[in-house]
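Hey,
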Amino acid sequence: MPQMLEARNQFRSKLIGMIVLGFIALAGIVGSAAILMTMNQRQMEGVAHTYQVERQVSAMRLSLMRIDSFRRKKDTERSAEELKTYRSRLDAAIDSFGDLTKDNPRQQARVPLLEGLEAQVLLQVGAISKAEYGERVHFDEPIAMLDVLTKAMQDEELRLQGFRAGELRRIQYGFYVLLAAAGLLLIVVGLLTFASLRRFTQELMDSRQALRDANTGLEQAVQERTSDLKRANGELQRFAYIVSHDLRSPLVNVMGFTSELEVATKRLGEMLADARKTRPETLYPGTDELIEQDLPEAIHFIRTSTQKMDRLINAILQLSRQGNRTLNPTWLDMNRVISDVAESLKVRAEQADAQIIVAPNQPEIYGDRVAMEQILSNLIENAIKYNHPQRPPVVRITGRRIGQTAEFRVSDNGRGIDARDFDRVFDLFRRSGTQDRPGEGIGLAHVRAVVYRLGGSILLESELGVGTTFILSIPLHYSEEQSQVS
């Protein structure tokens, strides 16, 4: 007894320590991811800012060229109206360029030159007088100077764009590393938790078998040890609930950040499409593959891993909750119970072209109806699901009374189970044979847990390629004292 208590305390301490360490690491990863997303947003805004500046540079050049072309027009009345429009656009473009580049001294130094070019061109077309022109800088070839200034401004923006694109790549790489670390950490914590739970469950099963073997007149000792096992099982169920419940919080965070990455990927795709149309020469080699293939593939891998982790957590929760459900025993007409279960699976059977044959004269028992329905439904569904590919499924349910026990047999003509897997098929998340059917490996573990709660046992007989028979031994009269630790 003291050794069991010590082992339980050690198990609890190790499990809690593992969970705490995992959550601390996940919290760090989540915080880092938030920082990286903020940096990513800032760099994307910078790239968008660069495109705005380039548009203003193009607008200024176009307006100056159109104003300069007025020297060759003869319709002065129409030209004056158009000149007013182009001059207004040019003023707006220069003002916008100045506002957008306030944080860039190099570009700010070119604003006075642009204003001088504007005044000189307006003077040439007669839009302003020499007095209005004043003492601004004079250029011998204003249009040639316009080409020089435009190229210089565009080169500066290309430099900034290259720097920001490099920062975006580094941030994206950081996202990959963080999300991969988060997914790996979740998988490791889940595997370690599962291994600990399985080991502890196996220890409980070994202790239960020892109690059966020792039941030779030591009724008091058996009752004491059974009580200890039930308390230990309660601790295990609470641990399973705590682990699965607390794992969901970081899992939700990872799912949320994955969704935000998908949004960010979509925005990057839109920016990439815009860049292809307007500035294809600015795209670095491999940018298309990075944004359109590598990033979506990484996000898909993370989403698939988190979805699998979510299914495993739900399975742990379902199994842990089974031990907390209150049983409501009543006299059961098993002919009616089995017929109702078969009727509820009628559609499933018809889809698989399966036959469900229920033998008459099933023994009556005093037990929990929901528990018996869960047991039979799982076994019949498995018999239909794991059918032999060369023949339609046939499921037979028979029952008989043996002393104070009712024995029910659920037989099928399916693919069968290898003798080496007779024990493992009842383990949580373990399945036998080819994994070509959907499922998480919890059905038979759940069946065994319910059977044990009813004070019964379950065995199987099987031959590969011939079929399988599950043998249920259920007490005719359920009592809390007979209920085993599930």
